[in-house]
Amino acid sequence: MKAITVLQPWAWLLVSGKKRCETRPWKTDYRGEILIHAGKKDMTSTVMQQTFFEAKCMKRAGVPSAEIATGAVIGKAVLVNCVQIDETMRELIRKQHFDEYALGCYSPGRYAWVLENPQMFKNPIPASGKLGLWDFDGNL
Fold it and tell me: pLDDT tens, 90-114?
């Protein structure tokens, strides 16, 4: 199954359904189920201390203050679209979905990977992540 590595706390936000788009500098033609792998680095405390708007949105979303799983597949979702961001889309997201906007990088030219039906796994599956879209060969 296809997988994408995302740093914490953004991986948690995706599988919990608090964040619907993962922004990337590259597009994908892949559509379908995708595993969300939490990278080994946890940026939660750094982000909560440095970026006021992002920290406020994360607190509102309920990001756990305790340590969250890293270096593991923590859930899955369905990748339904990949949209290139332009200035119009950026402003629309900023005005209508500020929390989503604050939790991603919506610079024109980037891509929003639109996810639906997120599911957080009860037990994280330890795995090494990779760059890009990759194939997870382990057992779910």
Answer: 999 999 998 899 888 999 999 999 9
Which positions ≥6 away from 81 have C-beta within 8 Å? 31, 112, 113, 114
Residue 116's beta-bridge partner residues? 78
Q: How far apart are the C-alpha atoms of 115 and 19, rounded to whole Å?
A: 9
Q: Kindly write down the DSSP assignment for every residue of 94-139, as one continuous string.
A: HHH-HHHHHTS---TT-EEEEEEEEEEEEEEEE----SSEEE--S-
67-96: burial string, b at 16+ Cβ within 10 Å, e else: ebbbbbbbbbbebeebeebeeeebeebeee
Q: Which two tokens stand for residue 103?
A: 């939790």
Q: What is the pLDDT of residues 41-99, one digit of tens each?
A: 777 656 555 566 667 777 777 777 667 888 999 999 999 999 999 999 999 999 999 88
Q: What pTM did the predictor assign?
A: 0.88
End-to-end CA distance of the chain: 10
| Whole-number Å distance between alpha carbons of 13 and 74 | 11
